[in-house]
Design goal:
The protein is α/β, with parallel strands linked by helices. The protein contains 24 helices and 18 strands. The structure holds a DNA duplex (15 and 10 nucleotides).
DNA sequence: GACTTGCGACTTTTT
DNA sequence: GTCGCAAGTC
């Protein structure tokens, strides 16, 4: 027996969960109650009990969470070689499909469409169906992908989902059905799957396998964020509930827009009559005054009143800071961050958590102006940036020279090739018998003289990229092929090419560029800086993150700007009770990220439009979640009109430019 | 006929 | 930053 240390420092409840036998187990874990630690201990216990590592499956919300937990479990058990299986639902599905592609009618080299590529394909279908330029506005491709995804993940028919959640699209209901059928058919023809297919196909494979179990133990983290499809998968993985461990907290369910439904946690518990439910309420993260706020914010509808108690005792009372406007708010936040830094708190222990990525714009300006380094997580995904998509399209053509979406994107980057000519060329691609990329001169012959040089350079260079086997070299060669296109198209081409070079470097010695790209698609970098690998220890920077991306993380000091109605809760969620409830849970998640200090900010006035040149403002009422009871637990501070610099009228002379002409 | 350019409107959250 | 639309140009 190894000197296992996983029991050290666990509470009674955590220990009971960790050492629980094989019967179904549900851990209801409030924020900061050592959920990760408990799961790690449970994995360690299983390994200790000689459950073979490859018979243990750990499903988590992010790949990073899985890697982190598995590494910690191995450290505890002290066994270097045993590697339990772990990852996100989507990553696991990809792994399973890669070994049995024929089971669902895919050929072995199938590709994974990232959401932006899925949108491109939907756009292409939309155009082919003549729905693009019709008189009434037809839903945008991205909306269509949302609708499609909602139907698949919830297992609900189109005619129910659209009226309920996308009422403005209801007039087009008749056209959407055939469109989705075409979208699905085209994916099959092109041998690609989207994210939803990964889950769908995994479920189909599991159902076909019947009762053969691949895993003795299945542990599911963040269960409150699973959708119906994922529940099915879990049920098929552990049909009788034996060996099933689920961990969740209804009050932290914040992915409703992705088909998650916090009620599924309760339904799952109800469906497992012999399940043991263990509740973790002792909070090791936050000072009590922060939890006092959290307990008030926590929606009571969700459970029988789980209430957090701090083991860390008293601390400073959280503050609510009223500011004049968003600029004043940004100044107040940065000032507070710098003061804490002066007193010895590293920048990386301080986070600014926002509802939507753009809410940190002014904070970023202020940080930059005062030369404070920061990193931003969430918001525009790296893979969604136009130049990265251009690159991905080119890479895709190397392996799948008949991928129409990729051709469409790449062709239109050229001078004198627009939508119409690109479509003609794609028709030509379809006609070509052998590899269309190798026959590039045939394609070039069909374009106008203006386009000829550019296109032949691109395609010839791209074809040459096939000569490189090593993933990073191949990626570099693809960059060479699209370099002129990037340079010609984007004013900030240098930065963008730098991004791509970093991306290419990260591919390193991967098995194949294509496989590597599929992995990146499923587990994308949160920011370009992520590609550079883990930051050096001596680097210090403030964290800016969306609340969604902050899930599972914690900082000593947390700043939440824009705690006003219309942002938290966001105005588009005000239409339904469910929407409003989810916003409340989101606020709860934000509040419970803080260990020692929490500051909420409410600007008095906000501009009507984000980039508006005019000075139209509206007055911003404080968030309805900060009611009298919550307010009573806060120190309220006024930082009203920022002292204006006295305005000295300039003399006419300094405005006179005559001497310049 | 097709492409380019310019303008205005809009932009939640993510595997 | 991106999309759709309209007018102007090859």
């Amino acid at each position: 027996m190894f000197a296992s240390t996983w029991r050290d420092g666990l509470t009674d409840a955590q220990l009971r969960a960790a050492a629980h036998g094989d019967a179904p187990l549900v851990v209801v874990a409030g924020a900061g109650t050592g959920k990760t630690r408990t799961l790690v201990a449970r994995v360690a216990d299983l390994l200790d009990r000689d459950v073979p590592a490859e018979r243990i499956l750990l499903l988590t919300f992010t790949r990073r969470a899985a890697d982190d937990m598995l590494a910690r479990a191995r450290d505890l058990v002290g066994r270097g070689s045993a590697v339990p299986v772990g990852g996100t639902f989507h990553a696991l599905a990809h792994r399973v499909l890669s070994s049995h592609p024929e089971g669902v009618g895919l050929s072995p080299d199938f590709g994974v469409l990232d959401p932006s590529e899925a949108t491109d394909l939907m756009d292409l279908m939309r155009a082919e169906h003549g729905l693009a330029g019709s008189s009434e506005r037809f839903p945008r491709a991205s909306t269509l992908v949302d609708i499609y995804s909602r139907c698949v993940n919830r297992g609900e028919p189109l005619r129910e989902v659209v009226p309920a959640e996308f009422p403005w699209c209801a007039p087009h209901l008749e056209s959407i059905g055939p469109l989705f059928r075409a979208y699905t058919a085209r994916k099959r023809e092109s041998n690609v799957v989207d994210f939803d297919d990964l889950l769908l196909f995994w479920r189909a494979l599991l159902a076909a396998e019947g009762t053969t179990r691949s895993f003795d133990h299945v542990l599911v983290d963040e269960y409150q964020d699973v959708n119906a499809l994922q529940v099915d998968i879990v049920r098929l993985l552990a049909p009788d509930g034996r060996g099933l461990t689920i961990v969740g907290d209804e009050a932290q369910s914040i992915y409703g827009f992705r088909g998650a439904d916090s009620r599924l946690l309760r339904e799952t518990i109800a469906s497992l009559p012999d399940a043991t439910v263990i509740r973790l309420e002792e909070n090791f993260r936050s000072r009590q005054p922060i939890l006092d706020v959290a307990n008030e914010v926590r929606p009571r509808e969700d459970d029988e009143g789980l209430s957090l108690r701090s083991t860390r005792g008293d601390g400073p009372t959280p503050r609510l800071v009223h500011c004049h406007d968003a600029a004043g708010e940004a100044r107040a936040i940065v000032t507070a961050i710098l003061e804490a830094h002066e007193e010895g708190l590293p920048l990386r222990e301080q986070a600014v958590l926002v509802r939507a990525a753009h809410h940190s714009d002014l904070v970023e300006v202020e940080l930059t102006a005062r030369r404070v380094p920061y990193r931003k997580y969430g918001g525009l995904r790296f893979l969604e940036a136009a130049h990265v998509r251009d690159f991905v399209a080119a890479v895709r053509l190397l392996d799948s020279p008949r991928d129409e979406v990729a051709w469409y994107r790449l062709l239109r980057l050229h001078e004198a090739i627009g939508t119409a000519r690109a479509r003609d060329l794609i028709d030509a691609v379809r006609e070509l018998r052998v590899d269309p990329l190798e026959q590039w001169p045939d394609l070039v012959a069909q374009v106008t003289p203006t386009a000829r040089d550019g296109l032949s350079t691109t395609l010839a260079t791209l074809l040459a990229a096939r000569d490189h086997a090593r993933a990073a070299d191949r990626a570099d060669a693809v960059i060479e092929a699209i370099r002129p296109l990037i340079t010609g198209r984007y004013p900030d081409a240098v930065t963008r090419l730098g991004d791509l070079e970093r991306l290419a470097g990260a591919a390193g010695d991967a098995r194949s560029l294509r496989a590597w790209l599929a992995e990146v698609t499923l587990d994308p970098p949160h920011s370009t800086s992520d590609l550079a690998g883990p930051p050096h220890l001596d680097e210090d920077f403030v964290i800016i993150s969306t609340i969604h991306s902050a899930k599972g993380l914690e900082w000593s000091a947390v700043h939440v700007p824009h705690v006003i109605d219309g942002v938290i809760p966001i105005d588009m969620a005000l239409g339904s009770d469910d929407g409003l409830l989810e916003e409340r849970r989101l606020f709860y998640v934000a509040v419970t990220r803080a260990r020692d200090t929490l500051r909420l900010y409410a600007p008095l006035r906000l501009p009507h439009h984000r980039h508006a040149a005019d000075d139209r403002h509206s007055f911003a009422p404080i968030s309805r979640f900060v009611d009298d009871v919550v307010r009573a637990r806060l120190v309220v501070e006024e930082q009203l009109p920022a002292r204006e610099e006295p305005v000295t009228p300039v003399g006419r002379a300094s405005l006179d430019l005559d001497h310049l002409w």
